Amino acid sequence: MCLRRSAWEVMQEHADFFNTTELPSDWSVTPEFTVVQEVEAKFTLVLDHSSSMFDYDRMGKMQRSAKRWILHDVAEGSSVALVHFGNDAVLKYPMTEITDEGTRQAIADAVTTESLGGTCIGCGLQLAVQETDGLSNKVIILITDGMENVSPYIEDVMDDVVESGTRVVTIAYGLSSQETLESLAQNTGGKTYFVSDEDDGSMLDDAFEGSLTYQPGDSLTNTDIKIYDYQHDVELETSLLDTFIVDATVGRNLHLRVDTKTPDVVTDEPILTSPTGDTFTASDFDSDTGLWIINVDLAEEGTWSWSLGLALTANGSHFRVTATAQARDPDVMPIYTEAWISTGTEYVDASTERVIVYAKVTQGDKPVVGAAVKAFITIPDTTNDGIEVDLYDNGQDPDMQAGDGVYSAYFTEYTVTGRYSVKAQVHIPTYCCGSVVPFDPELATPTGEFTRTAAAGSFHVIKLPASGDTFPPARVLDLTAAKSGENSLTLVWTAPGEDLDKGKGRVLVVEVERCLGISQELDALYDDQFDSSTDNAILLSCTESQDLDNLLVEAGRKVTYTFEVAMEDGELYYVALKALDDDSNER
Q1: Alpha-carbon distance 587 to 581, whole Å?
Q2: Structural domains in the chain?
Q3: What mean pLDDT do residues 547-566 have?
């Protein structure tokens, strides 16, 4: 897996070991711990008010999402300041602690929609840094849609922002957003998100939600966990209704949120119905942002339903309905999902780099196995359902360990350069589930049916792969060999894909190519000698393998192959396999 390198050689490639000085042999390695009190987050919204923000109703969408976040999402005790920028920057509201509904409303009312001309992102960042000077746990949430055209620029103030200790969450709005946003997030330990112009506000809400991870960590049992996410564009309908699952691990403080920018088309307000028929109506309606909230102190386990009525004029209106809940028992961990991207906030050269999408599904320290996990990836120029990618926890490339609750897959379907947004959705059907490693059906704890969603952020592709098929098959990580007869050997492995972990791995028709080799010399089976060394024997050529249909199967399926080979008892043999695709890409 690591090309015969030692663990220390691999560790030295990590940034933590760059430019280090070797310590003397008598240096004390006794650990020391410093207890640091958690500090409430200090958020500064730095919002683009340039004239281009009025295109595609970006300004209106940003105002609604920002207000919704201030009024309903930021935790009490956290503080919020508000900066608008255009040709210059304006402090619209000073850093203020959220103590009650009054402070929330006062800050939200300051989120206005006036135009301030050009785009001076550096001005906004400078003012935000000044406003939070001397504070701790500082986070800037930067939203912008355009390229900088007024100095100072991001690069001019980058060092000041980094030195201030402020983390920056960048939200790129539209295809023309400033190219250096990812560098700003990377250098400050922040996050990056992309919002398409066709988005109705959901992607922007997800980005705001992602920034809340910087609030002091309440215990996971008291954290709101998203268990349902529904989005729909009305088409000649007079009502909307759907169902969702409240599983056994959650149910306390259930909040159902019905969100639309056209609340006037709702004729019958949302109703939430429990599995036993109890009904609940909205305890809170925010007419300013078009948001209904229904609260249930302790939701029973099972299938819940919701409904609302619509006017005939509702055609084309967009609705988003989400449900969150906390752990049913404060002493028992809920099932929790988080998602991320292998490249983090770095720019992606897809001609040389591989992007891996991850989702982790756990209940406390126990992995949840057997779940159906999908990533939905929105390409830069559309908000259609996106590209759907199945993630697996099977120990096959790119997954490193089967059954650890971390699901993963390569992304290969690039269409254009730009920013790709990623969201993961987890579902476990009623017929299987477990939460132990390794997975043993007799010992596993059934989870029951559940769903979870988690936004992973975005990645910025600056160069596409070369035209044609450039992706090799994935690595085979589980090749096993066992002697099955006096002169026979049985090999078992999981089939790689034609493009990494996608499709069927195939072979190239070249007479001298070896697809399976055996040798008593390990070095003879490595890449640089696999095809040419005289110290190994061909167990199966690629020419022969192309005619064996049982070897050419979909990625992820087990392959078993038995063949005759003379081996001496008591001797050590090594076996190697090479996967090729139709265009001779090999792994």
Answers
A1: 9
A2: 42-214 (3.40.50.410), 220-327 (2.60.120.380), 335-463 (2.60.40.10), 480-577 (no CATH)
A3: 71
